[in-house]
């Protein structure tokens, strides 16, 4: 197990290094400068600015400087937010995104499992059909449409929750629902399919023959097995949600990281592009590792240090 | 019976809740009488005036800081820190006497030295200010920015604490207007040194000398407040006790907040603007930005004036701004935006209006097009139109494509919508046939626009050339710089030449449609440079 983990961590670092390298060089291929007033600066002024920021050096030198800085924990300073260290920008913005993403995931997975299970147990009845329709709608209605509807009817018309902004828990409810409906639908679909398979298997027949209650069978035998495919899905999904959804953050005016990422690319804010990309990649590789470990726990058939390793 | 009791109880609870809620809102509305709740569409990137580049930063600086002058309604110069201004006969030297009762929020007095320090800091290449070019014309500024002279040689000097002398190396007829722009405001050296790299990155790492002081800005959050500055020299004329700014990037969200009373002002998207045009709160903020077609005149086909004119004449601008954009933007009368500058009561855009430059005339266009093609010796002409990949950019190219292909026989138009930075790079490198460009004025003077199309100007991407035009612009800066009438006439003539020759084809003047609660009074909006001045704003009873 230890050997396996060391090997995996090594691969993780290698992956991150490759991501940093590729992103850096791709980013430098983008036309334009990182200066927001580029349009009004003469080529000579741009040249002076480039000198100040070290952007006139060959790209490989800039790359080495960046990587060395990153190894020392220095992600540089943002161009959009003058003088603001990228690490501060990320630190102050990731909180709301992470909280919202986690809440949406918990909401989605929890209700997804319930709806999926109910649908599987009542297969081919109106309950199943209703659950399927709910999942299809949840999957196909874009979350921003839902967000706008929730904001208008629940917040503005009924006044149950704040329209926008970020504060106590009540501010998070509507964005959580809007963001969580996607994972809810996906989870429900996976759980239903998985459970229908499991419920048809022999050992469930045996449990039934032994006289176990319906709930007991579902909870103890069927659910655990049908969750395995879900684990693969949840990991990357969580990372994607926690690193920010630009649209939902914009609609509910949440100070999250989502928009920073997109905007930094549009305005050539090199240090921010790198910082946020690295954060996203680090989260993703960490979650993939975690997923593999969790696999071993919920499914004893998968051995981390098994023969294959 | 029991149920009945319960129902009664519920009714009492509900009633008291409503009553209490009503009380609550009543008391809070009295308390917040002189508080304005303002919407912003994007974050505040910096409060360091040497580094600011965007409208939000400039708006915040303009209201929390003060320089020699403030810009009032119609960009009129109003007293700021200067109590007296003396200009030398040749217009090359300005001596300002500063008021003695101006204070920084850290208790220091605002002195002439703060101006010297601030200006030297901005032009220092190490500061990497993106607006330093506005200093061009002040003695040695260009040489300092190019790293050829020491910052101490800049033409600004403090004689004691309250006398400031500025020396120019060429005449700047709009110099006073510049003094109302935040890049020329003073900075407190002590604060800049004390906060170091954190200076201007949060409201607490900053000192203020303007009508308001900023609080609650962390450097990356979406809300902050400008509170009345009780140390401000003219505090008796500042009526608002606070302005709360909230960033809502979604216009729908901002409109919902406006409807619920949480905002007193909001920006409208194009669709919203079309629907809310009739509302009594509807206010259009006309900017000093013109969008126009630039033709690549290094290419033979666009050197032909008739081809350029034909393309311009098939554009039904009225239909375009009303039906396609619908965001309050107006038809461009010419290149220099309407409402930017007036002389003897006449707007520049009216004085320099050339009908053929921006009117739609399909019959004439067809004729000119046929003649143009004949002169070029071709039957068909294919070209591409480059623009931004924004909604407005996409709409513009689609509209142009169909207008041109429908009306001009043998024209084949392809469209390219690319990200803003890509568009800029391609424009600068001449990689385009026709490009939809936009230009906004930094200050309320036509030269802020017209300078662009002199033949040696680096922003003249289409490479349009006209010696008469160059001469007029040169005269406006030299021989006629001291004579307001002559200078005005030079500029009017120059624009007329540009339009008659169809060097560019202006399309629309950008505007923002907004809603403002009718109780909000006295907000000053200027199209060029800094937009908002809240010093005189108040909430009517």
From TrEMBL, chain B:
One of its GO terms (molecular function) is peptide transmembrane transporter activity. PANTHER family: PERIPLASMIC BINDING COMPONENT OF ABC TRANSPORTER, PERIPLASMIC OLIGOPEPTIDE-BINDING PROTEIN-RELATED. This is Oligopeptide-binding protein. InterPro entries: Peptide/Ni-bd, SBP_5, SBP_5_dom. Belongs to the bacterial solute-binding protein 5 family. Residues 1-21 form the signal peptide. GO terms for cellular component: ATP-binding cassette (ABC) transporter complex; outer membrane-bounded periplasmic space. Keywords: Peptide transport, Protein transport, Signal, Transport. It comes from Liquorilactobacillus vini DSM 20605. PROSITE patterns: PROKAR_LIPOPROTEIN. Residues 76-460 form the Solute-binding protein family domain. It comes from the Bacteria.
């Amino acid at each position: 197990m230890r050997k396996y983990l060391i090997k995996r961590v090594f691969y993780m670092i290698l992956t991150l290094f490759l991501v940093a390298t590729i992103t850096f060089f791709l980013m430098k291929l983008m036309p334009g400068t990182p200066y927001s007033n580029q349009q009004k600066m003469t080529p000579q002024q741009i040249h002076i600015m480039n000198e100040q920021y070290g952007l006139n050096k060959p790209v490989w030198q800039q790359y080495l400087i960046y990587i060395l800085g990153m190894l020392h924990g220095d992600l540089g300073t943002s161009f959009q937010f003058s003088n603001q260290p990228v690490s501060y920008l990320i630190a102050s913005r990731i909180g709301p995104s992470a909280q919202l993403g986690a809440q949406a995931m918990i909401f989605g997975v929890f209700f997804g499992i319930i709806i999926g299970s109910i649908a599987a147990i009542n297969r081919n009845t109106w309950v199943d059909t209703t659950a399927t329709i709910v999942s299809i709608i949840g999957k196909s209605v874009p979350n921003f449409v839902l967000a706008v509807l929730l904001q208008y009817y629940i917040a503005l018309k009924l006044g149950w929750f704040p329209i926008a902004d970020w504060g106590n828990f009540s501010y998070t409810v509507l964005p959580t629902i809007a963001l969580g409906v996607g994972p809810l639908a996906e989870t429900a679909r996976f759980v239903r399919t998985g459970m229908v398979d499991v419920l048809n298997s022999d050992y469930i027949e045996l449990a039934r023959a032994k006289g176990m209650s319906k709930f007991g069978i579902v909870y103890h035998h069927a659910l655990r097995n049908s969750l395995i495919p879900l684990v693969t899905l949840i990991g990357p999904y969580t990372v994607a949600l926690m690193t920010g959804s630009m649209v939902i953050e914009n609609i509910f005016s949440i100070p999250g990281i989502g928009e920073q990422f997109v905007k930094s690319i549009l305005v050539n804010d090199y240090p921010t592009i790198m910082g946020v990309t690295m954060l996203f990649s680090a989260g993703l590789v960490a979650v993939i590792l975690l997923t593999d470990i969790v696999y071993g726990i919920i499914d004893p058939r998968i051995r981390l240090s098994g023969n294959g390793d | 019976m029991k149920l009945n009791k319960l129902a009664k109880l519920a009714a009492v609870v509900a009633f008291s809740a409503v009553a209490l809620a009503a009380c609550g809102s009543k008391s809070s509305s009295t308390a917040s009488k002189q508080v304005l709740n303002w919407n912003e569409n994007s974050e505040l990137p910096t409060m360091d005036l040497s580094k600011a580049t965007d409208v939000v930063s400039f708006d915040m600086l303009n209201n929390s800081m003060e320089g020699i002058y403030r810009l009032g309604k119609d960009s009129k110069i109003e007293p700021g820190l200067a109590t007296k201004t003396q200009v030398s006969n040749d217009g090359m030297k300005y001596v300002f006497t500063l008021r003695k009762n101006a204070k920084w929020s850290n208790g220091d007095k605002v002195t002439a030295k703060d101006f010297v320090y601030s200006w030297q800091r901005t032009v220092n290449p190490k500061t990497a200010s993106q607006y330093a070019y506005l200093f061009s014309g002040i003695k040695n500024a260009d040489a300092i920015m190019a790293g050829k002279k020491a910052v101490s040689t800049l033409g600004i000097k403090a004689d004691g604490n309250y006398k400031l002398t500025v020396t120019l190396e060429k005449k700047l007829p709009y110099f006073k207007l510049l003094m109302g722009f935040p890049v020329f405001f003073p900075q407190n050296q002590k604060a800049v040194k004390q906060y170091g790299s954190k200076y201007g990155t949060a409201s607490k790492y900053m000192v203020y000398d303007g009508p308001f002081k900023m609080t609650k800005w962390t450097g990356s959050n979406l809300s902050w407040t400008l509170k009345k500055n009780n140390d401000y020299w003219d505090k008796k004329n500042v009526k608002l006790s606070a302005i709360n700014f909230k960033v809502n990037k979604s216009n729908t969200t901002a409109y919902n907040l406006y409807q619920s009373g949480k905002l007193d002002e909001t920006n409208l998207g194009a669709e919203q603007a079309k629907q809310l045009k009739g509302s009594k709160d509807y206010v259009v903020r006309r900017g000093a930005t013109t969008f126009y077609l630039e033709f690549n005149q290094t290419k033979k086909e666009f050197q032909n004036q008739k081809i350029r004119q034909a393309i311009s004449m098939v554009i039904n601008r009225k239909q375009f701004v009303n039906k396609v954009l619908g965001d309050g933007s107006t038809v461009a009368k010419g290149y220099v935006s309407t409402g930017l500058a007036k002389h003897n009561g006449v707007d520049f855009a009216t004085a320099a209006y050339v009908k053929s430059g921006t009117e739609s005339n399909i019959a004439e266009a067809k004729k000119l097009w046929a003649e143009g093609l004949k002169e070029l010796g071709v039957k068909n002409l294919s070209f591409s139109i480059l623009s931004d990949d924004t909604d407005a950019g996409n709409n513009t190219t689609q509209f142009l494509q169909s207008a041109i292909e429908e009306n001009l026989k043998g024209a084949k138009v392809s469209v390219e919508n690319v990200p803003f930075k890509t568009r800029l790079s391609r424009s600068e490198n001449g990689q385009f046939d026709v490009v939809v460009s936009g230009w906004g004025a930094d200050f309320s003077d036509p030269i802020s626009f017209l300078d662009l199309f002199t033949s040696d100007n680096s922003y003249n991407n289409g490479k349009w050339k006209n010696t008469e035009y160059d001469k007029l612009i040169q005269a406006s800066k030299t021989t006629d710089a001291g004579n307001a009438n002559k200078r005005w006439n030079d500029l009017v003539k120059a624009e007329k030449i540009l339009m008659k020759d169809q060097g560019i084809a202006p399309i629309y003047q950008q505007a923002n449609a907004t809603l403002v609660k009718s109780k909000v009074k006295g907000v000053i909006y200027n199209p060029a440079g800094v937009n908002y001045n809240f010093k005189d704003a108040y909430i009517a009873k």
